[in-house]
Amino acid sequence: MPYTAELKQLIRKVEATRPARIERKRRGEEFPLLSLKEREERLRKYHPDYMEGARKEIRVGVNKGYAVYPEIVNLLEARSRVNPDRVNLNKIDYVTDILILGGGGAGTAAAITAQEKGVKVLLATKLRHGDANTMMAEGGIQAATKGTKDSPYYHYLDVMGGGHFKNDPELVYTLVTEAPKVLAWLESLGCMFTKFPDGRLKSLHGGGTCRKRMHYAADITGAEIMRTLRDEAKNRAEDIKVLEFCPAVELLLNEYGHCAGALLYNLETEEYLLVKAKAVIMATGGSGRLHYQGYLTTNHYGATGDGLVIAYRAGVRLCFLHTYQFHPTGAVFPEQAEGLLITEKFRGAGAHVLNIDGEQFVNEREPRDVESACFIRECTELGKGVPTGTGKVGVWLDSPMIEILMGEGAIKREFPGKYILFKRYGIDISKEPMLVYPTLHYQNGGLEFNSRCETSIPGLFAAGEVTGGVHGENRLMGNSLLDVCVFGRIAGESAALYTKEKFTDGKLTLDHVRKYHKELEEAGIVTDRVAPMLLPDYTNPKVRERQLTTHYLGTIR
Amino acid sequence: MESQEGKKEELVPIFIMGKRYEVPASLTIQKAMEYAGYQLIRGCGCRGGICGACGTVYRFPGSYKIEVGLACQTVVQPNMYLAQIPFFPATKSVYDIEKVKPSIETIVKYYPEVLRCLQCNTCTKSCPMDIEVMDYIAAAMRGDIARLAELSFDCVMCGLCTARCPAEICQYNVAILGRRLYGKYILPKAEHLAEMVEQVQKGKYEQMLRELMDTDEETLRKLYNEREIEPDQADEFWEPQDKTYL
């Protein structure tokens, strides 16, 4: 739906201030960046992580006492979807060298490198291969590639600053030094990065970067990387088998406490399937579909934090899960597009962020958490948000500025995905600004792991959004696509090596699940909640009332 | 939440696989199906218009025309009758990207059926992303890999073109072959990238990074605050004052 008459009226204020703002931009005059101290104040006062009731202590497991979002706690303090006594551990459906859980960027990158080391891979994924947050990442991938102005040293500093200096230094070192290699790898696989005619990669700023090192493939960088990796995995189908619509519901350990496979659930036939593997790579991604504090999310349908739950039950520690990333610019208008990601690249390309008066109130390139906190402040305490007319409030993202700064046609060329999308709603974003508000975007934390992608359980490796430590308390734009490629590749190599050098065969067990159930009971947690969630619950409650004979286990019919 | 709160809103009739439901007029097809009581397993992925899981075909009564859309992006219209096509059998040729050449021979070898194209333009009319599908297939037939890659760049691989092609071509897999050939062999290589990889492998940044890793937080904060920031409007060849850590 196009902008209403009221909103069109308000857009005039944006247009009124635009010429002067463009002039300032051209002169290099920017809205002042906040100091580190000011950043911290804004975060404490306005970021959802710090709100009353945002965190709750976990009462069971290896992180007992650690406070995270209550929606995660509810899943951790839940029972398995299966009664371990009913699973016949002698009836094995698949045997493989490496089982990869998750078919996004990290899982697929891992499959490719593992295959190169000569092992057989089974990749199990909840939806289709490639239905993942990687596919949805738009803006780009960071890497210091231009030695005349940038180096991994500056990338390191930016990552640490963005993460509030809490990141694991070894993981950050690995991220920034592997980054150029990953870009070269993707280039060699045929990813169509946006380039100058001489082959030089185009690059932009992202929030919190000191050098322009965000490389991109128009505004669908993640999709370009994901479809290329998926195509490459399919070219190796002899060694990489894929099981779609088969999420993992438990890990299997063996008698030595090593990870030895997983129990999968076929969403279509409703069977449970047993996979025995020499090593398992957890690459199940994030959890935006848990809708923390009722926020909308940019995440894909399957982002329900399954890997966190099943690895935690098996004894892997969680870290940095007390912070969640809210992307500053999720669409709030039109209603059909609510929660939809509006890439940070718009701000990287120069679009200002404006309040109801068409005035700037924050530099458009603060790190994401700070930028989000400033939007929330403007819309709540200062009351200068723009009402959408559908019960939401937002701020303007002045995309037409890009058309003026970079020349006519720039929006259509640089942001074809978003241009087409809004055009369908009757909004031309090269002429009209967009209405945005923070939306759930990225799980900053997750499973504890090291730079070889090992977890505390031998035989269990992890990579991508399900892990914690790389980004500290806040990830910068363009570092998640990098993360999935860097650590996905390492996980594949490490796991392959493990199968050859350290693997010991043993008897399969689900005793860790029994033990966890007992711990729940001992903590006095009596519940019929089950986890992992697998799919979010979007069915109509009124229909549910009429489903007189239907049984739901958790959210699944 | 993305659920359907009890808003008083106009309801419109839609027909999901021929069966009538009344749904709020502002919903997308995807949300309308959930409103009607479906729990989606197939036909739902990113919910943001990029993964291609939710290709949908629909018609209006009395109209000969088959319309298409992504269920997560298309708003319902009264009396549309629709079906999702979340999967369609497709050919995917296996090739070694290191060994293929960006030429018409490669296209013909791996997807000979492109030569069967009847130029009926049904693929283009079936594309929810408004891609000129027939034109990129024509480019493939000419061996114009660059054109094939550029025209197909926005493809979400939903498969609606393939579902409707009378020549039984799997357009989207031809397209990704073309894009990978273009990205790997036709676009010039980034020399600065190769140079950086070499420097990293030689260990050029090793010592400065190890020093940073051992630095206490206070010093790190100072270094962070004082780092020189490339101006927003700087051109490609901007260079910093301090080149110590380059």
Short structural summary:
By secondary structure, chain A is an alpha+beta fold. Chain A has helices spanning 5-26, 36-46, 70-76, 105-116, 133-136, 152-162, 169-189, 221-234, 306-314, 345-348, 368-379, 400-406, 410-414, 416-424, 479-501, 511-522, 541-546; strands at residues 56-57, 67-68, 94-101, 121-124, 141-142, 203-204, 214-215, 240-243, 248-254, 259-265, 272-282, 318-319, 325-331, 353-354, 386-387, 393-397, 434-442, 446-448, 460-462, 467-468, 508-509.
How does this structure look, described?
- The complex is a heterodimer of chains A (557) and B (246).
- With 557 residues, chain A is α+β, with helices and mostly antiparallel strands.
- Chain A folds into two domains: 5-30 and 325-441, Alpha-Beta Complex (Flavocytochrome C3, Chain A, domain 1), CATH 3.90.700; 76-324 and 443-509, FAD/NAD(P)-binding domain.
- Helices cover 34% and strands 16% of the residues of chain A.
- Chain A contains 17 helices and 21 strands.
- Chain A has helices at residues 5-26, 36-46, 70-76, 105-116, 133-136, 152-162, 169-189, 221-234, 306-314, 345-348, 368-379, 400-406, 410-414, 416-424, 479-501, 511-522, 541-546; strands at 56-57, 67-68, 94-101, 121-124, 141-142, 203-204, 214-215, 240-243, 248-254, 259-265, 272-282, 318-319, 325-331, 353-354, 386-387, 393-397, 434-442, 446-448, 460-462, 467-468, 508-509.
- In chain A, helix 4 (105-116) packs parallel to helix 8 and helix 4 packs parallel to helix 15 (479-501).
- The longest helix of chain A has 23 residues, at 479-501.
- Chain A is globular, with a radius of gyration of 23 Å.
- The relative contact order of chain A is 0.20.
- The mean pLDDT of chain A is 96.
- Chain B is α+β, with helices and mostly antiparallel strands.
- Among the domains of chain B are: 11-84, Ubiquitin-like (UB roll) (Roll), CATH 3.10.20; 104-186, no CATH class.
- Chain B is 36% helix and 10% strand.
- Chain B is built from ten helices and five strands.
- Chain B has helices spanning 29-36, 104-110, 122-125, 133-142, 145-151, 160-164, 171-186, 191-202, 206-214, 217-226; strands at residues 11-16, 19-24, 55-59, 67-70, 81-84.
- A five-stranded mixed sheet of chain B has the order 2-1-5-3-4, covered by helices on one side.
- In chain B, helix 5 (145-151) crosses helix 7 (171-186).
- The radius of gyration of chain B is 25 Å and the shape is flat.
- Chain B starts with 10 loop residues before the first strand and ends in a 20-residue tail after the last helix.
- At the A-B interface, helix 6, helix 7, helix 8 and helix 14 of A face helix 1, helix 7, helix 8, helix 9 and helix 10 of B.
